Amino acid sequence: MMNQEIKTTPTVKNGGRLFRNDVIFIVALLLVVSALGLCFYFFRGEGDKVVVTVDGKEFGTYSLAEDVKVEIRTGAQNEEVNVLVIRDGLAYMETATCPDGICADHKPISREGESIVCLPHKVVITVYATEEEDAPDIVV
Ligand SMILES: [Zn+2]
Description:
Elements (H helix, E strand, L loop, with lengths): L1 H43 L4 E6 L2 E7 L4 E7 L5 E8 L2 E7 L5 H4 L9 E4 L4 E6 L12
Antiparallel strand pairs: 1-2, 1-7, 3-4, 4-5, 6-7
The site of zinc ion has 8 residues, from helix 2.
């Protein structure tokens, strides 16, 4: 009885270990794939400028590299205001006079294609990446 149990147990253990190795391999593979995906996401998807449009017309373009605060005035008497802030490479709406406040609640954006929209004021802030990657280095 005892001998039989001892003989059976290692076989089960062995099978379990093989299965676990497969799982480890698959998990490792998934980790590598997602790590590559994350690298791509973080290093290639980063934008470097934001373009502000009001009612479809360009209002201004601002570099994400420079900290600025921009007042975007809209409305018939310029009575409405959205305050765009760029800080530490992130762009966000600091305050807005719109009734819904959705734009001011939006998380900061910095990746190519991300945008913050203020529907009531027709203000759209979109992140772009400069096309030419081999911009000449200007040595001062
Ligand atoms: Zn808004």
